[in-house]
Amino acid sequence: MNALPTPEPVASDGASPRRLIGLKDAARLYSVSWRTFLRWADAGRVPWGFKIGGRRLWSLEELERHIREGCRPVSRVRR
Description:
Layout: E1 9-10, E2 18-21, H1 23-30, H2 34-43, E3 50-52, E4 55-59, H3 60-68
Antiparallel strand pairs: 1-2, 2-4, 3-4
Helix pairs in contact: 1-2
Pfam families: HTH_17 (PF12728)
Protein name: Helix-turn-helix domain-containing protein
Domain Helix-turn-helix: 23-69
């Protein structure tokens, strides 16, 4: 299996930088196809992520925490 690329840190307002990953890398963390991951995100099974421009991105730390906590459905679903 391919290793995930090192995500680029994104500076925020004085807090530590967030590491963001794209759809295919997020799906790879869960060992599913990118289409399945996107469907799960839209259904609230995994964090929705957020959009910057036209790209949907996820916080690597948030996804890792979600996996550690047993992949419980998330409470907030965006549409």
